Task: structure prediction
Amino acid sequence: MTDSPRDTTVQLVTACYADFNAGDRDAMLALLTDDVAHDLKQGAREQGRDAFVAFMQRMDTSYRERLEDIVVMATDDGHRAAAEYVVHGEYLADDAGLPAANGQRYVLPGGAFFEIRDARIARVSNYYNLEDWLAQVR
Result:
């Protein structure tokens, strides 16, 4: 029995988060299209794998995060997906425009929306409550 398009997409997004939690950035990046669109939380869209790599490098410098309680949902045709999770993190180094970092820990809900093309992630839009995060790290 072969997996449905929905199952294949759920497996793809689940693998992406597993790679993120394992710190395996190369495996995670291999799941993205070359022209991946990345909608940043409360920010602008970045385009392309190189921009995503630069984003991940910035994140890895300032934050240590693990996603837990991940739930992934997908459309029947597998072209769209959504995920909900809880971010468990530590603010390690100052991030431009944000409060000073001194190892503050935070826990907050987050979510993401995905577009899938040719069995790879073509768009990811991340969301969480910035005010909740700020309240936890101030």
Q: What stands out?
A: The chain has four helices and six strands.
